């Protein structure tokens, strides 16, 4: 027999959900686009206060042409974050190691530069594989593994470079990240393609959905026939590959690398990735939001520098924006949800 | 309000009195001026459909939620400050066993039992562990349970866990005072434990302590409670209705606000054999030993038994979630070695498992309903990296939401925002959508109201009618009798010969315990 | 080792040594004095007025070190005198960021680029691109990079890094009477910082046969390990009585390392690139006995002069960035605050801005 | 019919625990004390290879007299970790800010040094309170808040110190951390007392038990009547106070502070805290294990430095030890558990 469908009283509990009201709508839109709004506002403010320097094509070039390393780092971080590994602290070190491997092999050991690049990417992949084996198959805490690997790889980078910057890479080779296309270096488009690809995979493919499910609930995913460990391991591996490629591009762009600097990427990488959770898909790590966050932060800092403010202001801006944006996004989401 | 407040039996003040308590979540009013009276020494039932506000009321009474302004709560005649302060409520004798039990798995039994009750020595502020252990042991002994105190709660089975949670609430009850609220605490208790549980309640209420019992098992309500309060959409439509002489049909009508048709099991005859039956042979696991079961397409076979008899292991062994130690299965003309099969292989072979633990194993609660429904489905899929076919997906989700009557019918809502019963429907939809050859269910209607239960039963039957073999493991005899064509009884890990054919609930109880059906509470 | 060679060395040629020591003492005394006048170049720069309205980029390796702020301020004043704007871009100790700064300057068609403490190789591609666009580049506080010799679009100002460390070495030789056992916390961060240490070692070996020098290699990447590596180096080298921090930047962990080794009472501290805090430690008689300081404000003006010349296609003169030794004795002659540091009065009469302006032919004031 | 107490199937879940066998025992002991064993081994190895330098009182002084800041930082971190806030990235910045506040107020603004210290501790407390309000009461993600606060407070520290190290504190004042007691500075004992106190609270008092429960499961704790938010907020506040006191002691020890130094503490703090989970109470954050980890790492590094190895070896050691120790502990625990 059938149940008489839709008893009158039954549906009353969900009135709120089925009829989204204006407040709700504003809340959602606010939390999606507020950071983009602030970005626009920043551009206006800087444009008004610094018209001569800010409103130039150089500004656009600087903002969009200088963040390749960060874009690759955030993409690598997103790979693992999306499958529920919250904090991969090792990506900057992987990138740094790969970036120093290229000039060390090519300049100091006379390897062909392409071979050296391949070797660097393989190093990144291997680092990702070690992370993956330890966390996924041996079950060691992710933070511990990646923190340890981060330090270890920094040590290796210092070792092979003898603690000093190595430079002298070919300027032809530099074209893989510096070749100008429509006023911007090709590295910008490489980062863009990477992020769009990641966004596509996550949003539109079964693989992406499986990744999100693994991130949300491993046990449920396993029972649904998803090969959870394979996906998690794959995420670490991809993170390694992406960081490796990013490292090669970074080395190419500067013509060499300094092994000591990789740690300085850690904060911006995390800041941009987490700020990304306040953009487009509030509360969720998402590639496009992250990309916007990267350029938003770059805009903010650049404008401040053009205004000639002291060095500490950039830190205050970075920290303040991160806290305020994510707090507002959290509050708006809470109100609308 | 609608309900007629009956004269209180005996002396003056009610033990617990709730007046006009409301609770609003965002734009959703979960409770509307609820009234409730619990007199000393009674077992008082609180029933209602999923999402009618029972748990919310319990949580308001313990201070977990703050109520809307305006309501009043009295304990033994004296008003309780609102919002309720948890420690104050407990001091006044109000304790709750929450629906989710409220245990921390990687903590020991004694720690869980004494959680929130630890007392420090005056000077050193140290915990007096010997006293704590004594108190814990005493609480458990009262329930007749012998669990090592230093064992992690996660290592206990569901029934022992429930018992620990119940013991925790009972330890605060002083004879003759207080109210203990059980929010669906009995759902995972087996029949034998249930009987013991009610015996214990009898001794508790005999001293004058009161009990408020929230449950979906209407027979429990009719058997065990003295009076019942019925919530419908957050409104108390009946307050303190005496259960003596109340029929189940009456109660259902009050609860749903309408007549429920076809509550009685209509003989469901499996369609004529259309394909080869699914055969399972020599299945062994941790408890189950050498089990042979065969399920024909279109047939619904139940497995049951007392706790620990191994019937609840079968679903997980058959679906590759837990490794069997031995066993083979013939499915769709193929032979599968159960000891080597993993979940992915089982799904590929056409097995679908609806597990018991909805939150842990069933649904990813922060993902949307649609995503959950589509997770296991492979019909809309062309390859891991190919774009998903959104239109086909949306159509499929809409179809299942409608078929199982998921409320609200919004695919883009996070699954965690649905009520438990509706989550259960989504869980079922997720697996029915895969069009399985063998559907394996574990406690499919646990903690689900009668209306939802019907929707679920209808969906399972529809799947069977479409040629799916269905295997149900359950400890709820009503559920089994409602669903099954055959029921296999397990004893000590072994499947008993002579399955019951279209048994009634009484038949099943009798077969399990080899005794007649008795009232839960004398 | 020191105890053995020291007395033996002195006893072998006492007279010669004493003579050498007193010579050295004279030069140390001189280095402890303020300059009578700053060494402002003499050949005039014509056509500075044609640069009015241009923008020069100043890229310090990081903004988190105070001497760059001092230089930047002086540079701003100097450029403003000629109507040229200054744009500071923080290198953030990161090659990508430095390259971004250079590209920013290139993209904005800057009049010139001044980098501070950045090896050419750290941003080689970006700097090459800037020079290809005929934007002159001035590398300051670095030794010239042999792979990138100075030309019409590239100039170097060396800074006083090596000189400061040599001066500190001289002071130690004099102070110890030629028997110092020295530990140098030397930075491996760039070829320049390494070469400064080498210069100091040469100074010791040339002028003090009785001295023993040990170098403890430190790196910004291992900042957290500087303290413990310092103390272990002290434990490993018995008899250390001087510890040199290559820059004031490493002074705090160096001090911690000395404290941890428990030998604080027998060890004298030394440092270079003095900042306010270094002088405060001197006047507070805390650990530090000597700190060499380079004239950062003057460097700012000299950099401006150099970039003007590069922008106008002229030859660069050789600039000497003055330096001075501060000790516990002479630190009271200057005021240890940021204002005094900023005017350049630590090193000599603060009138060099006017001299530069005269050189450039721009109006006073 | 009555329930036979302990139905056969009922107990099956915990057979393993009630009969501990030898393998189990070895596994547990191994995972508890393995790091301590390695520590002893290290001491022996260094003692043999470097008898002249390693086996001296200077070594002991260096190892145990140098880690005060780290001890305070790990203690602050433990406060929040124990209540389930996994990664408070701001503690080093809080310590750094408090440490610079003392000399800035006392030296540059002429405050009484004790008043300046009090102010510094108040600053730390305020920072903890901000962290607490944002995470506990507004529900913002902990990593975001503390990452943001970390950057922001670094900026503030750079600002008030004008990006320069400030020194010139009284040497009398230095006695609060340098006063020698039995060959070690009093700072060592202060750290020891702090950690022992924390261990006592966590292990023996109802508060500690409640903190652990809040860390394990907030919802359950709240249902059990524990004031979850108050405990979480309290943890952030305590972390601020501890970091503040640590900062004052650090400033006193060096007679001033360098605002840029604080970030270099981040890695060692996390490394020691996570390594602590492999000691004494495997798999659990615990103060005594953390304290041992701090001195273990200090020993390892010092010995390497005494052997005169290059700077990068220390990084490799740090990272390698962290990864290997926690991996082994995880594996041993897995086998025994
Ligand atoms: N945390 C919450 N936030 C928002 N709404 C809530 C929340 N908890 C409960 N509700 C709402 O309160 C209503 C009543 O829920 P409650 O849990 O009390 O139902 P119940 O009667 O216990 O149901 P069940 O029988 O399934 O346990 C639901 O409709 C739900 O929408
Ligand atoms: N976090 C939440 N936000 C919004 N609505 C919620 C939330 N949690 C629950 N609800 C709503 O509360 C209602 C009931 O939820 P709840 O789980 O309390 O029901 P329940 O009565 O316990 O049901 P069941 O018996 O099926 O477990 C649902 O309608 C659901 O939409
Ligand atoms: Mg409920
Ligand atoms: Mg429920």
Automatic annotation (TrEMBL), chains A, D:
PANTHER family listed in its UniProt record: ABC TRANSPORTER PERMEASE PROTEIN YPHD-RELATED-RELATED (PTHR32196), RIBOSE IMPORT PERMEASE PROTEIN RBSC (PTHR32196:SF72)
Taxonomy, superkingdom: Bacteria
CDD domains documented for this protein: TM_PBP1_transp_AraH_like (cd06579)
The entry's keywords: Cell membrane, Membrane, Transmembrane, Transmembrane helix
Residues passing through the membrane, by range: 33-49, 69-87, 117-138, 143-161, 181-203, 231-253, 265-281, 288-310, 316-334
Location within or outside the cell: Cell membrane
Gene Ontology cellular component annotations, sorted alphabetically: plasma membrane
Species this protein is from: Amycolatopsis acidicola
Pfam families reported for this sequence: BPD_transp_2
Bilayer topology: Multi-pass membrane protein
InterPro entries xref list: ABC_transp_permease
Protein name: ABC transporter permease
Keyword Cell membrane on entry: yes
Keyword Transcription regulation in record: no
Record-level Gene Ontology MF annotations: transmembrane transporter activity
Automatic annotation (TrEMBL), chain B:
Pfam family, one: ABC_tran
CDD domains in the record: ABC_Carb_Monos_I
Keyword Repeat: yes
Entry keywords, A to Z: ATP-binding, Nucleotide-binding, Repeat, Transport
InterPro entries: AAA+_ATPase, ABC_carbohydrate_import_ATPase, ABC_transporter-like_ATP-bd, ABC_transporter-like_CS, P-loop_NTPase
Domain ABC transporter, residue spans: 16-258, 272-517
Molecular-function annotations in GO: ATP binding; ATP hydrolysis activity
Listed SMART domains: AAA
PANTHER family per the UniProt record, alphabetical: CARBOHYDRATE TRANSPORT ATP-BINDING PROTEIN MG119-RELATED, GALACTOFURANOSE TRANSPORTER ATP-BINDING PROTEIN YTFR
Protein name (Swiss-Prot/TrEMBL): Sugar ABC transporter ATP-binding protein
Species whose genome carries this gene: Amycolatopsis acidicola
């Amino acid at each position: 027999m059938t149940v008489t469908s839709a008893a009158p009283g039954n549906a009353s509990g969900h009135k709120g959900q089925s009829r989204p009201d204006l407040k709700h709508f504003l809340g959602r839109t606010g939390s999606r686009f507020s950071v983009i709004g602030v970005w626009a506002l920043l551009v206006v403010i800087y444009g008004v206060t610094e018209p001569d320097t800010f409103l130039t094509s150089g500004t656009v070039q600087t903002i969009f042409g200088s963040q390749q390393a960060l874009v690759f780092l955030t993409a690598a971080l997103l790979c693992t974050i999306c499958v529920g590994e919250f904090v991969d602290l090792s990506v900057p070190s992987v990138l740094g190691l790969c970036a120093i491997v290229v000039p060390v092999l090519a300049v100091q050991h006379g390897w062909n530069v392409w071979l050296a690049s391949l070797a660097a990417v393989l190093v990144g992949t291997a680092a990702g594989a070690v992370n993956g084996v330890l966390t996924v198959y041996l079950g060691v805490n992710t933070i511990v593994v990646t923190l340890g690997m981060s330090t270890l790889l920094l040590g290796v980078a210092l070792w092979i470079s003898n603690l000093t910057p190595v430079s002298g890479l070919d300027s032809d080779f530099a074209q893989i990240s510096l070749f100008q296309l429509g006023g911007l270096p090709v590295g910008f488009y490489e980062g863009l393609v990477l992020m769009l690809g990641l966004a596509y995979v996550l949003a539109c493919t079964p693989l992406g959905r499986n990744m999100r499910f693994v991130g949300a609930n491993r046990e449920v995913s396993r029972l649904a026939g998803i090969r959870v460990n394979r996906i998690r391991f794959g995420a670490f591996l991809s993170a390694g590959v992406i960081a490796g490629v990013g490292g090669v591009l970074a080395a190419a762009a500067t013509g060499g690398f300094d092994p000591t600097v990789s740690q300085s990427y850690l904060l911006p990488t995390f800041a941009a990735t987490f700020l990304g959770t306040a953009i487009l898909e509030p509360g969720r790590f998402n590639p496009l939001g992250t990309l916007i966050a990267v350029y938003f932060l770059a805009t903010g800092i650049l404008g401040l520098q053009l205004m000639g403010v002291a060095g500490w202001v950039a830190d205050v801006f970075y920290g303040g924006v991160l806290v305020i944006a994510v707090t507002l996004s959290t509050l708006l989401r809470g109100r609308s949800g | 309000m609608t309900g007629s407040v009956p004269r209180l039996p005996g002396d003056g003040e009610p033990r617990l009195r709730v007046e006009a308590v409301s609770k609003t979540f965002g734009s959703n009013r979960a409770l509307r001026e609820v009234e409730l009276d619990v007199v000393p020494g009674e077992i008082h039932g609180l029933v209602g459909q999923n999402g009618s506000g029972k748990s919310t009321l319990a949580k308001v009474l313990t201070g977990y939620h703050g109520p809307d302004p305006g309501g009043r709560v009295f304990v033994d005649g004296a008003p309780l400050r609102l919002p309720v302060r948890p420690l104050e409520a407990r001091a006044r004798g109000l304790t709750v066993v929450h629906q989710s039990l409220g245990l921390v798995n990687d903590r020991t039994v004694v720690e869980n039992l004494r959680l929130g009750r630890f007392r420090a020595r005056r000077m050193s502020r140290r915990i007096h562990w010997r006293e704590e252990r004594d108190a814990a042991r005493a609480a458990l002994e009262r329930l007749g349970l012998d669990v090592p105190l230093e064992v992690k709660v996660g290592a206990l089975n569901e029934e022992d866990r429930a018992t620990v949670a119940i013991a925790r609430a009972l330890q605060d009850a002083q004879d003759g005072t207080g109210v203990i609220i059980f929010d669906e605490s009995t759902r995972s208790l087996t029949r034998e434990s249930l009987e013991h549980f009610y015996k214990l309640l009898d001794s508790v209420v005999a001293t004058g302590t009161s009990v408020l019992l929230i449950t979906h098992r209407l027979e429990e309500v009719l058997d065990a409670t003295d009076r019942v309060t019925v919530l419908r959409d957050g409104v108390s439509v009946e307050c303190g209705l005496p259960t003596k002489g109340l029929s189940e049909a009456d109660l259902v009508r009050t609860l749903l606000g309408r007549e429920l048709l076809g509550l009685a099991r209509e003989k469901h005859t499996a369609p004529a054999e259309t394909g080869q039956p699914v055969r399972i042979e020599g299945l062994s696991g941790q408890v189950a030993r050498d089990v042979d079961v065969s399920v024909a397409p279109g047939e619904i076979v139940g497995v049951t038994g007392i706790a620990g008899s191994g019937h609840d292991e079968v679903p997980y062994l058959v679906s590759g979630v837990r490794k069997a130690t031995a066993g083979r299965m013939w499915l769709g003309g193929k032979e599968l070695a159960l000891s080597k099969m993993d979940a992915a292989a089982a799904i590929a072979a056409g097995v679908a498992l609806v597990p018991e633990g909805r939150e842990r194993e069933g649904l990813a609660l922060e993902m949307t309903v649609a995503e959950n429904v589509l997770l296991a489905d492979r019909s809309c899929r062309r390859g891991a990296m190919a774009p998903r076919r959104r239109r086909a997906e949306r159509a499929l989700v809409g179809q299942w939401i409608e078929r199982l009557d998921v409320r609200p019918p919004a695919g883009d809502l996070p699954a965690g925002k649905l009520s438990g019963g509706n989550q259960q429907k989504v869980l079922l939809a997720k697996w029915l959508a895969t069009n399985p050859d063998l559907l394996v269910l574990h406690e499919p209607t646990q903690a689900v109201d009668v209306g939802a239960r019907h929707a679920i039963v209808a969906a399972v039957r529809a799947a069977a009618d479409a040629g799916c073999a269905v295997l149900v493991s359950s400890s709820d005899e009503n559920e089994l009798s409602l669903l099954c064509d055959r029921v296999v009884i397990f004893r000590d890990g072994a499947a008993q010969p002579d399955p019951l054919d279209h048994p009634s609930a009484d038949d099943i109880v009798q077969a399990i315990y080899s005794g007649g059906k008795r009232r839960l509470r004398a | 080792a020191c105890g053995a060679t020291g007395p033996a060395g002195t006893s072998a040629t006492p007279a010669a040594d004493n003579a050498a020591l007193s010579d050295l003492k004279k030069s140390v005394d001189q280095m402890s004095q303020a300059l009578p006048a700053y060494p402002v170049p003499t050949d005039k720069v014509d056509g500075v007025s044609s640069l009015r309205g241009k923008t020069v980029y100043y890229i310090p390796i990081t903004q988190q070190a105070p001497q760059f702020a001092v230089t930047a301020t002086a540079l701003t004043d100097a450029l403003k005198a000629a109507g040229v704007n200054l744009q500071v871009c923080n290198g953030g100790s990161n090659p990508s960021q430095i390259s971004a700064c250079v590209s920013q300057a290139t993209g904005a068609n800057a009049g010139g680029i001044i980098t501070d403490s950045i090896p050419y190789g750290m941003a080689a591609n970006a700097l090459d691109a800037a020079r290809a666009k005929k934007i002159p580049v001035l590398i300051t506080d670095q030794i010239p990079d042999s792979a990138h010799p100075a030309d019409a679009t590239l100039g170097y100002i060396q800074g006083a890094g090596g000189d400061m460390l040599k001066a500190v070495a001289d002071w130690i030789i004099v102070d110890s009477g030629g028997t110092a056992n020295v530990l140098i916390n030397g930075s491996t961060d760039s070829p320049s910082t390494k070469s400064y240490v080498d210069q100091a070692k040469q100074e010791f070996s040339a002028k003090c046969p009785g001295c023993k020098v040990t170098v403890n290699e430190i790196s910004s990447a291992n900042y957290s390990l500087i303290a413990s590596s310092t103390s272990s180096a002290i434990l490993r080298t018995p008899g250390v009585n001087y510890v040199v921090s290559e820059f004031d930047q490493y002074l705090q962990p160096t001090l911690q390392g000395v404290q941890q080794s428990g030998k604080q009472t027998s060890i004298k501290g030394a440092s270079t690139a003095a900042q306010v805090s270094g002088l405060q430690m001197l006047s507070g008689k805390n650990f530090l006995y000597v700190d060499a300081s380079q004239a950062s404000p003057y460097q700012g003006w000299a950099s401006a002069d150099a970039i003007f010349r590069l922008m106008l296609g002229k030859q660069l003169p050789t600039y000497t960035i003055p330096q001075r030794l501060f000790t516990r004795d002479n630190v009271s002659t200057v005021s240890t605050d940021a204002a005094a540091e900023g005017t350049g009065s630590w090193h000599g009469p603060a009138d060099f801005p006017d001299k530069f302006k005269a050189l450039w032919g721009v109006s006073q004031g």
